[in-house]
Each structure stands twice: as structure tokens, then as C-alpha cells.
Amino acid sequence: MTLLNPTLHKAEQKTFAPAMHTENTTKDLNLSDFSTFFQASQAITHQDKNQVYRLRHKVYCEELSFEPCRPSGLEQDSFDQRALHCSLAEAQSNEIAGTVRLIHCEQDPGPLPIEKYFAGRFTAPHLTPQCFPRQHVCEISRLAVAAKFRRRLKDSTAKDLPALSSATQPFNRYIAIGLYLMATAMCLEKGYYHGFVSIEPSLARILQRIGINFTPIGEVIEFNGKRAPYYLDGRQVIANLQPEYRQLMQSLRQQLLVEPEQAEATPQTTGTNNLQWAMA
């Protein structure tokens, strides 16, 4: 199925894209420090993918009952065979904190989930997946954040709104945004320029606050909440992202593409020259 963002309830979505410049009880957060707390990687091995499927099972099956529980404790579907899987792990414990997948059509030109669930409901036929070369389309899907990293905590900077961070883990609230940025980075790296998602309209508006501009292409339907289909040209993201998030995206991209044994030796530069890869 498509990206439902089940990890955030309605009230929590207001802090999904937190402001970068607000008064804090300690000091303003700097997103360049995000990698001190979390490390991005691709799930390539069988063991890594099982970690992803296990987290998805906890969120989608056990916590939210969006999918039936499996005896294996692994949440999988047929689209996983043609998907790239990415995850964020807590740097100190190496515990997986969140995951997202990127369904592509590079080897298999079959339909994307969005084409199945929104068939006959598209209102922008010129922006549907079938309008683009299949090797350049993809769908961002199955985003999940582990429960311990999305606890509702009081945030003095957000007044009475629940937050996804604390004094000891100030970057927890950026995990979901990091996953979106990771997926977009992989879209660009692989040439899947035309991306699709199925999310709540309110969440699409929130993501626009940081420069991820989704274009609505269909009707809202009821599917584990109100969902609508959206189109995103990944090549426009770099130009539209707020500078802090542009740098975070570049940092996450470097982590995703570097072999584990090379990670420590690779400089984490964020200059504009390093963003040329996304401007094709």
C-alpha cells in the first residue's frame, strides 16, 4: 500500500515539520548535528530487510491494525521485491528508528500501488504515473517510525502542542522528515524523477512548509483515514527546500551511498557543488 504516515496522529502532525528558529530551553537546534544522533542506510542484506519488515509489522499490524498480524512478525507485500528500503538507526544503540521504501518500475513496469487504489479517481490525468517513462517513476511508501521515537512529549516551544522530541533526544521529531528526504535523495540518485505518494492533505500542506511541494492529482478517499494522491518532481526539491533541510538531505544522501566501512573516512560536506547531482 501507499505511504499512509501512520506514525503521526492529527494533533502530532502540527509538529511534523518543526520550526527551526524558535526559543528553546537550551539552545537552538542545528540540523547539521542530526547525524550525531541518527545514521541513514539502505537495507540491502536479508537481515537488514527483516529489521525493516519487523518495524513495519510493529507499527502497521500490532499498533495501528492497518494490516493483519503475521505469524512471522514481518510485514511484507508483493511490492517489496521491486523496492529500495532505507532506514534511520539511532547512532548510539544502532536501533532502527524509522524506515521508508521506494517502489520503482526499473525492472518491473507493473502498476504502482497508487494506480491500483486511485484508479478512476485521478483529477490531473497529465500527472499520473502512466504519463511518464516507467523507468523514471516511483512511489514513496510504508513510512514507519518506532514507537519509542515518536512518544508524545510536552514541548515548551510549541505551547500546548504535543512534540516528538525531548531534552535527551532533541532530533526525534525530525526522523519522519529525514525519511522523506532520504526517499527523495534516492529518487534523484536512481533517476526516478517522478514521485508519487498517498497521504493526508493536511500532511502535504505541512511538508510544503519546508519546501517539499506535492501537487494533488486525485480525489480524497477513506483508507485508514483520508488519503489523497500526490505528484512530486524530485528535481525541483533542491531548489525549493529551506537551506537547513537542503543540507540535511545532502548529508543523508552521503550516508545512504557510502559503504559502511568507508563512512568514517568520508567528509560530510554540504556545499552547493555537492548538490549538482540533483539538478539534472
**CATH homologous superfamily assignment:** Gcn5-related N-acetyltransferase (GNAT)
So what's the CATH class?
A: Alpha Beta
Number of domains: 1
Sequence of secondary-structure elements: HHEHEEHEEEHEHEEEHH
CATH architecture: 3-Layer(aba) Sandwich
Helix content: 25-40%
Structural class assignment:
alpha+beta
* Distance, first to last CA: 30 Å
Number of E-state strands: 10
Largest sheet: 8 strands, mixed
Secondary structure tally, helices: 8
Radius of gyration of CA atoms, rounded to a whole number: 18 Å
What would the CATH topology be?
A: Aminopeptidase
Per DSSP, what share of the residues sits in E-state strands of 2 or more residues? Answer: 15-25%
Question: How would you sum up the global shape?
Answer: globular
Low-confidence stretches: 1-27, 152-168, 262-280
Task: Give a short summary of the structure.
26% of the residues lie in helices and 19% in strands. With 280 residues, the chain is α+β, with helices and mostly antiparallel strands.
Explain this structure.
The protein has 280 residues and is α+β, with helices and mostly antiparallel strands. The protein has one domain (10-14, 33-258): Aminopeptidase (3-Layer(aba) Sandwich). Helix content is 26%, strand content 19%. The protein is built from eight helices and ten strands. It has helices spanning 10-13, 34-37, 46-63, 113-117, 175-190, 201-208, 237-240, 243-257; strands at 38-42, 83-90, 96-104, 137-145, 153-154, 162-163, 194-199, 215-216, 221-222, 226-233. Strands 1, 2, 3, 4, 7, 8, 9 and 10 form an eight-stranded mixed beta sheet that branches. Strands 5-6 form a two-stranded antiparallel ribbon. A hairpin with a 3-residue loop joins strand 9 and strand 10. Helix 5 crosses helix 8. The chain is globular, with a radius of gyration of 18 Å. The chain starts with 9 loop residues before the first helix and ends in a 23-residue tail after the last helix.
